[in-house]
Design a protein that fits this description.
The complex is a heterodimer of chains A (559) and B (328).
Chain A (H helix, E strand, L loop, with lengths): L1 E8 L3 H12 L4 E5 L15 E2 L9 H11 L6 H21 L13 E2 L9 E2 L5 H16 L2 E4 L1 E9 L2 E9 L4 E12 L20 H8 L4 E2 L4 E7 L10 H4 L3 E3 L20 H13 L8 E4 L5 H7 L1 H11 L8 E10 L2 E3 L11 E3 L4 E2 L12 H20 L9 H16 L8 H15 L3 E2 L1 H18 L13 H25 L8 E2 L7 H4 L1 E8 L2 E8 L13
Parallel strand pairs in A: 1-2, 1-9, 2-6, 9-16, 15-17, 18-19
Antiparallel strand pairs in A: 3-5, 4-5, 7-8, 8-9, 10-15, 10-20, 11-14, 12-13, 13-14, 20-21
Chain B lengths: L1 E8 L10 E8 L6 H12 L18 E4 L2 E4 L5 H4 L5 E5 L6 E3 L2 E2 L2 H9 L19 H11 L6 H4 L12 H12 L12 H7 L13 H5 L6 H14 L6 H16 L4 H9 L4 H16 L14 H13 L9
Parallel strand pairs in B: 1-5
Antiparallel strand pairs in B: 1-2, 3-4, 3-5, 6-7
Helix pairs in contact in B: 3-6, 4-6, 6-9, 10-11, 10-13
Chain lengths: 559, 328
Amino acid sequence: MLEHDVLVVGAGLAGMRAAIAARAQGANAAIISKVHPVRSHSNAAQGGINAALLDRGDDWEDHAYDTIKGSDFLGDQDAIEVMCQSAGQALIDMEHFGVTFNRDDEGKLGTRAFGGQRRARTFFVGDFTGQALLHVMFEQLIKSGVRRYEEWFVTGLIEEDDRVCGVTALEIRTGQVFAIRAKTVIFCTGGLGRVFEPSTNALIVTGDGMALAYNAGAQLMDMEMVQYHPTTLAGNGVLISEAARGEGAYLLDKNGDRFMERYAPNMMELASRDVVSRAEQTEINAGNGIDGCVLLDCRHLGEALIKEKLSQIREIGIDLAGVDMVTDPIPIRPGMHYMMGGIKTDVDGQTNLPGVYAAGECACVSVHGGNRLGANSLLDTIVFGQRAGDHAASAARDVEYMEFDVDAVVRREEQRLQGILDRPQNGDRVASIRLGMGESMNRNLAVYRNEAGMRETIHDLQGLKERYTTVPVDNKGQVFNTDLVFALELGFMLDCADTIAVSALERMDSRGAQARTDYPDRDDENWMKHIVTAKGDEGPEISYSPVSITRWTPEERKY
Amino acid sequence: MDLTLRVRRFDPDSDNPEPYWQDFSVTVEDNATVLDALIKVREDVDGTLSLRCSCRSSICGSCAMRINGHATLACKAQARDSLGDDNVIVVEPAGVMHVLKDLVVDFDLFWDKIMAVEPYLQPQGPEPEGEYIASNESMLHLSGVTACIMCGACVSDCTVLEVDPTFMGPAALAKAYRFTADPRDGDEEGHSEDRLRMLSEASGMWDCTRCFECVQVCPKGVAPMDRIMSLRDQALAAGMDKNYGARHVQAFSDLVEHSGWLDELRIVPMTMGLGNVPALLNVMPEALRALSHGKLPPLVHPELPGAENIRNLFEKVEQGGKEPEGHH
């Protein structure tokens, strides 16, 4: 029998941090991931990780205020305090683990400026900070001796007496289904970017954990808060890091004017992401763009700086857009990038389901509120991954493994999967449903939203969900049947899409990433609250949760 | 753009699991990558095609495979630059590792080698309260190595691994160098002698034949072979010169310095050690075979005309304060 005190689902930064923490507490910890840990999407974080270090004259309270303002005052201030107070130690821990952070002239950790912050407190490794952190975290995972289930896909949760007591999983390499017993389960499955098309997110980012938890009764929160990143490539939506603007790049309209002057005269290109994306979209809509894009101009930064600090995005520009940013501006536009919402947790990662935790992008603590600051996501994964791992390990000491009929559970899951494999061809394709969903979401739940559009998407999703119940898969085999995995992922994504659209329609104001043309103002009187969704008999059911305000009074946001 | 993907396929679930070629004709955008084309096949034409891929931007390392005979990331290879005759792009799984299905290979061999180098920082000195103080240059240098995304392209095309699966290989050795060159790893001076000793053993740093293949195929500019050569320099500098590889380098250098060219008759005993009779007996059959084919090097090894110029060069390099390079 495979059984663990703490089973972490997902092996990005949050998941590995959680597993390492749980193991350090003496727990029998394991980590399960549908890809090898170093393939995880934490890789894609480019710009850096925020921390206010006292010996640099910085102050965690300044960091907290910038984060709260960035969140458009929807972030929970108690949770943000925890994150910002823990940031320094989390950063130093990563340095001691071996991350090769860029240094300043004294050999100390160097910083760069980042959006929405009044002070340069973003620590970085070139423009591949996420990759650097992820690989070092994997090194520590190896050192810790945590059991790893690599390329295992979690297909469902096992519940007995209303308590989650394990997962069913498909070993992708063999096609075998297993039941894994667990006293506690921590979801660290990342975001849901592929619900949108295009998205900066990797193809594996399909909201699995959010959907699994939601279907087991977990609450999701802030699902309407979807971040559109200001600088993504047209077409495939690949990310060009905020580090470019952090290092001083300009945003230009078709006339070569720095249009951010009109939207954020103080912070200019480094206003918070929602503000910059809206400015770009407004200019593009007004006909001031070029082929649906504006320009990111790095030329004045010089070749040496670009090669040292922006090498990865330069490579992306050359490979995917055919533009060398040393010599030419690169066309970019706002693109779906990050999910502020997720599984509702407290600061220890606990959800409303006993024994079930979440951390990282799939969770909503909520430290990002309506809009996440650049370089706060890496911090979020490490701080809350560790806290969830610690808490789950100690909680597991007080509970016993639940008994269940393993063979029956496995057989039932095998039959369910076989049912999908056995579906007759009907001309429909998984990819076609996914594209329909993604395009509808990107049309109506993007930078600007309105009621009619969102209702259209909710209607679209209903039709797509019906098609989903009969969509066939081509591959009937056992070994590395990615066709089956995609079909299962699509189910997760459709569940997530629903909660996004329903939450966004519910929120009748504009705040953070949600900008409604039919409710253009922030309405603190009625909507200074979180929207919570839980699975009901007929789709997502809405409730509300108060925003924690400790000491920073909501005010109008200007950059 | 219309193109044909000629894909090497393998289905272990089939009645007759033999690899075979299959052509797929697809139309893609002009700036599409080979991965875009493969995804189009998988999504629109044939869902049974298996491959690993995720980020689409050369950072997750999932989609290394052979394209037109050389390992690369499918998401980095522009389709228009990969077209061969009749607009065909030949796509095969990565080499060295065995194929599980279609373009998916078994990475166990790759990871076993990475694990063998104890791939995590091992500082022996006291941990500072804040960060370690280190120069930006030292960190930038390391970041050039930690930029490795473990895609396996170098392992796929390594010409040593092709014939000797025990070789640690370019990725693991580059990973090891990432620690030996880290001022935080090892003793308080940042010397990682235990690592260097282990890496000097058979199947380690001295088994690279310097074919440059890994440097060429690495999609991230890590240049694994250069890191292996740096490992050799580190090992020699640490006095670890009592093995075939180190002695071979030293003998090579001494012989060329002496006569201006390589004395192939003497390099073997100098590498193996003159007193190492069993090893020398071991190579006797090869020597005899060479003799019988008239390939034995001349017994008398004359100095090349102008050899003193070579000696001067050696002298100048050594006076320049540089150690003789491990690679020549």
